[in-house]
Amino acid sequence: MQPQLEVNEDLARRVVAAIGRAFGLDLAPAEALIAVSTRDGVDYQCNLAMSLGKRLATPPREVARRILEHLDLGNVLEPPEIAGPGFLNFVLRRSWLEDRVHALAGDDRLGVAPEEQPRRIALDYSSPNVAKEMHVGHLRSTVLGDAITRLLRFAGHEVLPHNHLGDWGTPFGMLIEHLLDKPPAARSGIGDLNAFYQTARRKFNSDEKFAARSRERVVKLQSGDLETLAVWQELVDESTRHFNEVYRSLGITLTDADIYGESFYNPYLANVVHELEADGLTEISDGAVCVFPEGFHNREGDRLPLIVRKRDGGYGYAATDLATAKYWTTERGATDLLYVVGTPQAQHFAMLFAVCRAAGWLDGVHAKHIGFGSVLGTDGKVMRTRAGETIKLADLLDEAVSQAAEVVAERSELGADEQRAVAHAVGIGAVKYADLSGDRERDYVFDWGRMLAKDGNTSVYLQYAHARIESILTKAGNRSDDTAVLLAEPADRALALTLLRFGEAIRAAVSAYAPHKLCTYLYDAAVAFSRFYEQCPVLAAENAELRASRLQLAALTSRTLVLGLGLLGIEAPQRL
Ligand code: ARG
């Protein structure tokens, strides 16, 4: 079966073709500005005649009239109307809509055609630091990165996820010494990672001897001393166990095979420096090897450096990121480098990309920092515990599940096991959805009440909508997917149109790395379903054909919610 164009794309192509015929202009479909209409009885609209009118020095209504004159309606459109100063109002033909919705029923991908030119995308996400607890910032990277991975894969791209663990650098001197100070019996299991890190830090700051030992230990670590590496590995393993617990509880797709920590790039660092030097890109500044990419200055107007090798000969965060970019493009053939990292690191990535570009490592490669805002407490400040510490992710997730359990407990007909599974799906879903449903660039307020609300744009609302539809379908009993779709009432039609927009939503979410666009769509779909259900009797429809058609719409809505939530990494329990 030939994949069909999404409705907006189909209309856009018709409109630009008409403009080509009418005015000899060659526009790209995206320039047609086709938008879903909010007017009653109108499906899509196009406002292009306004701006074209200016460009062609012709009254917009006249432009609109000539576009219509040349528009191929196919079997898709009713003859369109011109409204007001020159808006084009499009109404889709009922029979065409009915056929399209019918075709959805037989399509696992619900009308989304896979990308014709798939890309090979290296995606850096989660990336917590060894010997520290993950915090809400890592939660955001993890949840966003995982949803983006699922979306890109569904769109047909190849995704190479890599977890850039902070597992190297000077703090490891003190961490290793601190671990070695413990009696051997107490060494297995670091326990509380934050406390471990903080105690090591306190000793480092207050005990000169400990600090000296730590510095020597860094040198040993970097020179590959085996005993030192073994202790370092203990720290890494312990932390990885802890990260994996969080991933498992969150349902994150990352595995140990995706770990490419900072230490992985060690063997590549010296070469990176040599290459940048040979290209004449480096300067010595304060004894350090630096690159000063063009266009980066501080407030005083001084040029900003990317430090490639420190004065003491060591390598830092930036050098590792240079090696990382080079590795994924040259050795792994990535066409895209994506980084899901908080917005405070925007400048670091802008400078990194500038240097990589100058070195020729990004020829034909699309590099992008997918930034995100901070997670704030209900007081509007960056989230902390009452004691002023950063909140531990594991505690937060436990809290989510236990709060969700209270919401679910009202439904006593579920057995204990099912209730536990549902509470998990609801609680974890709520935390993830809260992270995903707002524009990622903005900060968001972590608010239990709001994220677990049964109404509004929440995962709980979507999960309820899905479970309600499933219960209707169960009551309906036997049903065939191959029934004619009849769009008899405006509410039937509105729901059908919404279901046909799934592909548009996926495309928008994928192209902007913006899962919130999918969230908004799913919410619209659930709302459209509930209007439909209020206005159109389903189980008690007037006749058997209409009943079958409405059950078909219900089943499609359910599948849309399950697939959509799945792409966000959120479960949709059958009963709730
Ligand atoms: N470990 C870093 C942090 O916690 C994030 C690393 C992001 N990835 C990268 N390639 N720099 O802030």
TrEMBL record:
GO CC annotations, alphabetized: cytoplasm
Similarity annotation: Belongs to the class-I aminoacyl-tRNA synthetase family.
Gene Ontology terms describing biological process: arginyl-tRNA aminoacylation
Record text on subunit structure and interactions: Monomer.
NCBIfam families named among the record's database cross-references: argS
Span of the annotated motif 'HIGH' region: 128-138
Domain DALR anticodon binding per the UniProt entry, residue ranges: 462-576
Gene3D superfamilies: Arginyl tRNA synthetase N-terminal domain, HUPs, Isoleucyl-tRNA Synthetase, Domain 1
SMART domains in alphabetical order: Arg_tRNA_synt_N (SM01016), DALR_1 (SM00836)
Record organism: Amycolatopsis panacis
Annotated SUPFAM superfamilies: Anticodon-binding domain of a subclass of class I aminoacyl-tRNA synthetases (SSF47323), Arginyl-tRNA synthetase (ArgRS), N-terminal 'additional' domain (SSF55190), Nucleotidylyl transferase (SSF52374)
HAMAP family named among the record's database cross-references: Arg_tRNA_synth
Primary localization class, coarse: cytoplasm
Enzyme nomenclature, EC number: 6.1.1.19
InterPro entries (UniProt xref): aa-tRNA-synth_I_CS, Arg-tRNA-ligase, Arg-tRNA-synth_N, Arg-tRNA-synth_N_sf, ArgRS_core, DALR_anticod-bd, Rossmann-like_a/b/a_fold, tRNAsynth_Ia_anticodon-bd
Keyword vocabulary terms for this entry: Aminoacyl-tRNA synthetase, ATP-binding, Cytoplasm, Ligase, Nucleotide-binding, Protein biosynthesis
Name recorded for this polypeptide: Arginine--tRNA ligase
UniProt key word Aminoacyl-tRNA synthetase: yes
Enzyme class, UniProt record, top EC level: ligase
Pfam families registered for this protein in UniProt: Arg_tRNA_synt_N, DALR_1, tRNA-synt_1d
Gene Ontology molecular functions: arginine-tRNA ligase activity; ATP binding
Reaction catalysed by this enzyme: tRNA(Arg) + L-arginine + ATP = L-arginyl-tRNA(Arg) + AMP + diphosphate
Domain Arginyl tRNA synthetase N-terminal as annotated: residue spans: 9-92
CDD domains (UniProt xref): Anticodon_Ia_Arg, ArgRS_core
Record has Kinase as a keyword: no
